[in-house]
Amino acid sequence: MTQHNFSIEFFPPKTPEGTEKLRATRAKLAELRPKYFSVTFGAGGSTQQGTLDTVLEIMREGHEAAPHLSCVGSSRATLRNILTEYKSHGIRKLVALRGDLPSGFGAVDLSSGEFRYANELVEFIRAETGDWFHIEVGAYPEMHPQARSPQEDVQNFARKVQAGADAAITQYFYNADAYFNFVDEAQKLNVNVPIVPGIMPITNYTQLMRFSDMCGTEIPRWIRLKLASYGDDAESIRAFGLDVVTQLCEQLLEGGAPGLHFYTLNQAGATMAIWQRLVD
User: Fold this and answer.
1) Which of 9, 123, 136, 142 is the catalytic position?
2) Of 48, 89, 201, 216, which residue is 20 to 30 A from 208 by alpha carbon distance?
């Protein structure tokens, strides 16, 4: 595989120890020469400074970096300031998402605030900055948890692309057919931007179940049962997870996926192990 089809995601660390740990993780993953690193943006922009600090540090190390930007709970003025600051630092790539409200806001009230959906954010970025930024958006092969139907979900995705998105990164999934079906449905709506599969390595069963419940990812029954059967045997969970996720990546790349985007959770080991298997 070439470096052109491979990217890595981090979250901004909250402590000095976390910052040091992420530097060590990044040094290892940089050896794989990913095309870029992306850095998440907390609910309602709660990690905004941490996101920027992490992105700038990655850029100083000589790598391309893309901050995430979410719009729910943000005003136009706030986002305009963030975009101006990103431009001033020479940042050229963004991951534009609707995002979640900070905890304490209750259920997402899409009628409040100046932005309701990611396509409005993409439109705003284009209106403010022209073609300065390469914009990645989210895609949901197994349907966004708040969409009413798969058809509505793919139409929402098409709106983001029509608003000016250049490419997409998917929510993670473990069923390659869901991804290929989503790409087919998008193409029927004349959406032909690259849709890069998001990959979540499996290293911890409890954590994986919690994340998947939150974001609506289906863990196939046979994978769930097998992981549960290992109990606290972390080594067996990791070995099985490595096999499952490597096979998924191979299937996706062989089927024509334009690349892979790894959700690392600021850990290097599992992503490196999958990558080594893919290039061997």
Assistant:
1) 9
2) 48
